[in-house]
Design a protein that fits this description.
By secondary structure, the protein is α+β, with helices and mostly antiparallel strands. The protein contains five helices and seven strands. The protein has a single domain (3-165), classed as Gcn5-related N-acetyltransferase (GNAT) (Aminopeptidase), CATH 3.40.630. It has helices spanning 13-28, 34-38, 42-54, 103-117, 132-140, and strands at residues 3-7, 58-65, 68-76, 88-94, 122-128, 144-148, 159-165. Helix 1 (13-28) crosses helix 3. The model has no long low-confidence stretch (mean pLDDT 97). It binds coenzyme A.
């Protein structure tokens, strides 16, 4: 295994779209309605990654193993603003075979250090309410629950939100 973490490039976006679909399958099958998988739009999702790369206030990073993408993360201004949180870590996804070997923590720390470098004192991470493994990870990283959506029939919608306080020392 030869894991490298680097900033995402526009040429990565098609591969990222396929990777997203693959990780969704192992993360959200049984939570999201099947229709969300069947109607997955590869081109549209590649464009979403492109827009993040082209934006000035959100950064997208990827992890690769011998050049093949195995995970990604974004951080910066919130995609969906909440209360007075001006920064977030978002879109943290690692391919199943590469989970549990420290990549998530490296991604988290990359976002944490970037947000800290801006002089911020706190940030937010939002997670699907029914994605319990990810919540275990976010709590291990020191997150405190500050908001939980009510349950809904469409389980892709309700979120749980974690606050992280930045240690200034
Ligand atoms: C959740 C996720 C990002 C965590 O990343 P990861 O690379 O698997 O986690 P790491 O190997 O970096 O683990 C870091 C630490 O968290 C702990 N941890 C990881 N998953 C955990 C869990 N489910 N519950 C409790 N602790 C957990 C690890 O034991 C490790 O502890 P250590 O620092 O004491 O060794 C990753 O598993 C993933 O991409 N899952 C599927 C997609 C997903 O749900 N993304 C989140 C969307 S909101």
């Amino acid at each position: 295994m030869n894991i490298e973490i680097r900033k995402a490039k526009l040429e990565d976006c098609e591969e990222l779209s396929y990777l997203k679909r693959e990780i969704w399958e192992t993360t959200y099958r049984g939570i999201y309605p099947d229709e969300k998988f069947d109607s997955y739009n590869y081109v549209g999702n590649a464009h979403k990654f492109e827009n993040i790369i082209l934006s000035n206030d959100i950064f997208l990073y990827v992890a690769s193993d011998n050049g093949k993408l195995v995970g990604y993360v974004a951080f910066g201004s919130p995609l969906r603003p909440f209360r007075d949180y001006s920064k977030e870590i978002v879109l943290l996804y690692i391919k199943k075979e590469y989970q549990g070997i420290g990549i998530g923590k490296k991604f988290f720390n990359l976002g944490y250090e970037y947000i800290k470098s801006l002089g911020e004192t706190k940030f937010l991470i939002s997670c699907n309410k029914y994605n319990l493994p990810a919540q275990g990870f976010y709590e291990k990283m020191g997150g405190k629950k500050v908001y939980i959506d009510d349950d809904m029939d469409n389980k892709s919608i309700p979120q749980i939100k974690y606050e992280y306080i930045i240690n200034r020392h």
